[in-house]
Amino acid sequence: MNFEVKALRADAVVALVLDAADEGDAKAQAVAQGYTVLAVRAKQSWRAWTRRGRAHFPLILFSQELLALMNAGLTVVEAVETLAEKETRPEARKTLRQIIRDLYEGRTLSYALQRFPADFPRLYVSTVRASEKTGNLGEAMTRYIAYQTQVDFVRKKVVSASIYPLLLIGAGGLVTIFLLAYVVPRFSRIYEDIGTNLPLLSQLLMQWGKLLQAHGVLLLVALGGASAGLAYLARRPATKAWVMRRLWQIPAVGERMRIYQLARFYRTLGMLLGGGIPIVQAMKMVSDLLPPALRQDLAGAAGKISEGRSISYAMETHQLATPVASRMLRVGERTGQMGEMMERIAAFHDEEMARWVEWFTRLFEPLLMAVIGLVIGLIVVLMYLPIFELAGSLK
Predict the structure, then answer these.
(1) Predicted pLDDT at 49
(2) Domains in the chain, start-ordered, CATH in brackets?
(3) What are 377-388's pLDDT values in tens digits?
(4) 3-state secondary structure the chain
(5) If you average pLDDT over every residue of the chain, what do you get?
């Protein structure tokens, strides 16, 4: 990534553009060249904008390979050096080399990782930091890999369930546009030559067809501009927050979203508890995973636990537990296996969510096909309605 560095050298202010892993790396490069750094900022470009939102560092693959090398007997430094040597992506290689430099300077692995928040999430860094206290880095890696794999599986299942409806909407929209922009105007000219009186709905349809034919390019540009504007708005955090608030207000959808968020919350919390992180600290760490509507409840529950209340009582009081979760939390308190029990709660709700998504998909897809068929069928009927009436008058 390129960084713009404003620096001082020989009583002159100069501007540099350096390729570095982060701002700290860019500053270090400038200092090594004899400059006194005044300011550092990331250089924005259209390529950087197109890559925004895409993780360029393969975190799960890195964790799996690091775990395999450590199980083979290599030290952490040797394992990271091996991964850096085989890495072909420039940005990932640069990140690994910076981690190696920090390790040779005597820094811990968690310290080296936390310098790259875009590549290593807080949960990952916290899991590694907790394992450094117990010496079970391999176990922590295994736990995080299993956690992230399950989270990705649930996310992919939800995304895959939405692909077919989107394809139906796209195909139906293209067919509708083709009928309105190509077929309807030709029927309109036929009816004008015949000179017959058209029903009101057929007249409206013909007017729409003429409009699309006469101003098709302008309407296409407007549609493209509107799509680009919507895509820009959809990327903004404020827009996402507004949409999420509206979805939460829908009773059936809001309840399912709540269960999905709670399942993710319990899975993450269980992973952190299994790694030896105290419950209150773990709850603060997972606060960012929850929507704003549940963060205040989480803070209240953490306060209750700090006061000596039980976890099950705190979760029930602040509505962070379903009836099933409440019972399982009480069992976890009796057995002392709270981390494992929270992962079981997450697994139960993930299965419940998967069943609901499957049911909703089976119900929604036929309804969507019926709606698209009705729209296309209505257009076809309105096109041929004058012909039907003309045939009836001839009889």
Answers:
(1) 42
(2) 2-51 (3.10.20), 59-148 (1.20.81.30), 162-395 (1.20.81.30)
(3) 888 887 777 777
(4) CEEEEEEEECCEEEEEEEECCCHHHHHHHHHHCCCEEEEEEECCCHHHHHHCCCCCCCHHHHHHHHHHHHHCCCCHHHHHHHHHHHCCCHHHHHHHHHHHHHHHCCCCHHHHHHCCCCCCCHHHHHHHHHHHHHCCHHHHHHHHHHHHHHHHHHHHHHHHHHHHHHHHHHHHHHHHHHHHHHHHHHHHHHHHHHCCCCCHHHHHHHHHHHHHHHCHHHHHHHHHHHHHHHHHHHHCHHHHHHHHHHHHCCHHHHHHHHHHHHHHHHHHHHHHHHCCCCHHHHHHHCHHHCCHHHHHHHHHHHHHHHCCCCHHHHHHHCCCCCHHHHHHHHHHHHHCCHHHHHHHHHHHHHHHHHHHHHHHHHHHHHHHHHHHHHHHHHHHHHHHHHHHHHHHHHC
(5) 80
